[in-house]
């Protein structure tokens, strides 16, 4: 997981308080903490966070766990960014909150834009599942690296043309994306892989 957690896009943060609806924040924390128990979301020994969860507000805007929050035990409004605009071609993310949006914000955006009905995306890391399902489930090109425009474009292509709702990121070591109409269903997709 080299280079994990570093923002590669142009991030324009408008610092202001945001308020994530309580039911969404509770769901994000519930599933995030479950995946943290299995070290699928968390922080590396060098302090770099990995894995994230987002919730789609309306297709263009979504809440996502903030950058470098892998070591935070319980996320609050302070640890969530509200993404208000993305442009994949320009490698640009605009967000509101007190923290930069996750380094995989363009990836989440691409899934929301191309998968009708997607309301939640969960991005985990799991070497066992990554190896087991590589090229058995929809799999990105190996040169589409973490946080890149290429990965965002691959996720857009695959999420538009599959009903799997799980994508293996070949160029993003151990990376797996799950998406569905709710946070619960996106999480359940991942649990079914076991």
* Major pleated sheet: 8 strands, mixed
What is the total domain count? 1
SSE run:
EHEEEEEEHEHHEEH
- Radius of gyration from the alpha-carbon trace, in angstroms: 15 Å
Describe the global form: globular
List low-pLDDT spans: none
Counted by DSSP, the helix tally is 5
Q: How far is it from the N-terminal to the C-terminal residue, by CA? A: 22 Å
As laid out across the biggest beta sheet, the strand order is 1-7-6-5-4-8-10-9
Percent helix, as a range, is 25-40%
Q: Write the CATH homologous superfamily.
A: Class II aldolase/adducin N-terminal domain
Which CATH class applies here?
Alpha Beta
Here the CATH topology equals: L-fuculose-1-phosphate Aldolase
Count of beta strands: 10
Question: Structural class given helices, strands, pairing?
Answer: alpha+beta
Second rung of CATH, namely the architecture:
3-Layer(aba) Sandwich
Whole-number mean pLDDT:
92
Care to describe what's here?
A hairpin with a 4-residue loop joins strand 6 and strand 7. The radius of gyration is 15 Å and the shape is globular. The protein is 28% helix and 25% strand. By secondary structure, the chain is an alpha+beta fold. It starts with 9 loop residues before the first strand and ends with a helix. It has one domain (10-191): L-fuculose-1-phosphate Aldolase, CATH 3.40.225. It has an eight-stranded mixed β-sheet, sandwiched between helices. The mean pLDDT is 92.
